[in-house]
């Protein structure tokens, strides 16, 4: 058994297959992949890594398994998946995932190849575990996978409290102990929930009387989003690194699969050494970031821009640069995905029925409104060119100049009373 002192969960005891997995190269690599990517440029103490997060996810999964009375080989599979759930992440976590997915067809939870070979595969087979089955659990497949990858998974529970702790932002605080105690699996022989959705096999739900427990997860996520996860400085720096990654792949022999297996240090070294990315690398290293030229709200952005794919966004960037009279690489268009709230589909038990949280909780509607109102389209450029680029972007994108957000309120999250 290994005992680790953790900032969030105090002492974490690691046993069995998970203890054997900790020292594999795939897991140790996560020591060099930051959990929050570039958020450290906003919150300097946000230097925690995917490694410590993986330990936390294992810890919560183990506690949940004890509470649920799940043991033996089934528990070993879940604990292995919890420890390995992030080994597919590339450098700077989710930041480069859209790029590597376009070129490899794989997301970070597509880990079958990583688990089947090397030290991880050997450890799993030594413990009589099928690597393909563990990879399926990481991807959310099969009974009980919802503990690791689902609407109420221990992944969310750990990253919210860990991100809140390391940024110093208090909004991510949730009662993980209560969550773990109140999780339960319900066998649904008829394959249908009370809300009419089809669900075969065991279903992970919160036990009776825990609507507020589930709501706390949504509220924590909603409050952390604007001040941490989508802070404009983090958004700009991430967009600059995505541009650098694209140019690195286009200008060198580096392949997307190779990029996907780099850690943060490998990637930063690669873009420093590449002539085409050296200026973006310098700007990132010195925090000489591009500035906001446009910061537009959801309803002020035309549908054609919301629906633009990568090629269309690149064409819009070229058009904006041409109209503004600046170099193509001095314009970055950043269109976030459509707002989603996966946690709202979590199941809770109410009066003996399993219901979707969104059906039971009036808070879900308010949080959806808040999420939509927090959404921003960004256009970024070097500071001397921001005015010209902003005017050109408004013209090219068809934005109403009166609807543009001209001031960013630092660390001021939207409050629910604005949506009553």
Overview of this protein structure:
By secondary structure, the protein is mainly alpha-helical. It is 48% helix and 11% strand. The protein has 20 helices and 9 strands. Strands 5-9-6 form a 3-stranded antiparallel β-sheet, sandwiched between helices. A two-stranded antiparallel ribbon has the order 1-2.
Question: TL;DR?
Answer:
By secondary structure, the chain is mainly alpha-helical. It has 20 helices and nine strands.
Radius of gyration: 22 Å
Order of helices and strands: EEHHHHHHHHHHEEHHHHHEHHEEEHHEH
Mean residue pLDDT: 90
Estimated structural class? mainly alpha
Please bin the fraction of helical residues: 40-55%
Which regions have little confidence, pLDDT < 50, spanning 5+ residues?
190-198, 408-420
The coarse overall form would be: globular
Number of DSSP strands?
A: 9
List the helices and strands and how they pair.
Layout: E1 2-6, E2 10-14, H1 16-22, H2 25-28, H3 50-68, H4 72-84, H5 97-104, H6 112-116, H7 118-126, H8 131-138, H9 154-167, H10 176-182, E3 183-188, E4 201-206, H11 211-229, H12 232-251, H13 256-261, H14 264-272, H15 278-285, E5 291-297, H16 303-306, H17 310-324, E6 332-334, E7 347-350, E8 353-356, H18 357-360, H19 363-374, E9 376-381, H20 386-397
Helix pairs in contact: 1-4, 3-4, 3-9, 4-8, 9-11, 11-19, 17-20
Keywords:
9 strands, globular, 48% helix, mainly alpha, disordered C terminus
